[in-house]
Design brief:
mainly alpha, two-stranded antiparallel ribbon, 2 strands, 180 residues, 6 helices
Length: 180
């Protein structure tokens, strides 16, 4: 991608864009498997969600590999990314929307359960889902390329910081299990 800042806009950059978009698509099945286990707690519904995500990913991947599957976005001082075709972008947006709805459901259900039982495990499960929700929303905004100026830097800093948030939740949960 450094080559685009020097004016290179060739097939190499487009192929790298296809690879990066494919990596974004590969995160969907893992998220839907997690949500299926958390929400439905039945393998059947977990497989349905995961398989649906795989199918959406394969269809989107097929469109990405077509001519004009990715194209160059406007280069600015802050970004020089490529954008996926409209069909792949809409499929990914639909998948993100379903994931956001399921994550919000999981967060609210966990918070209600925590409020009733006061078990820290329920609170931590809600916080895990909250960190995933923030990650998915920020990744969706970044992938849609609706922000191409300096706020993109802030978005990507928050995008990376969410991993620290998730790590802190895991450490707090593990520390709560320790007996001294």
């Amino acid at each position: 991608y450094c080559l685009t800042s020097l004016g290179y806009r060739g097939e190499l950059i487009l192929n790298l864009g296809r690879i990066f978009q494919t990596c974004a698509l590969l995160t969907g099945p893992a998220m839907f498997y997690f949500l299926g286990q958390r929400i439905f707690q039945q393998q059947f519904w977990t497989y349905i969600l995961t398989t649906g995500s795989v199918i959406v990913g394969l269809v989107s991947f097929w469109f990405l590999m077509q001519p004009n599957g990715v194209s160059f976005a406007e280069a600015t001082f802050y970004t020089s990314d490529v954008v996926p075709n409209l069909i792949s972008q809409r499929l990914l947006t639909a998948e993100i929307a379903v994931g956001v709805i399921l994550l919000i459901h999981n967060i609210l259900r966990g918070l209600i359960l925590w409020h009733k039982t006061h078990e820290r495990r329920d609170l931590y499960r809600s916080l895990y889902s909250a960190s995933l929700l923030i990650y998915v929303v920020l990744a969706g905004i970044d992938n849609a390329k609706v922000i191409n100026d300096w706020p993109l830097l802030l978005l990507r800093i928050f995008y990376a910081a969410i991993f620290l948030f998730a790590y802190m939740i895991m450490v707090a949960e593990e520390e709560g299990k320790q007996s001294y």
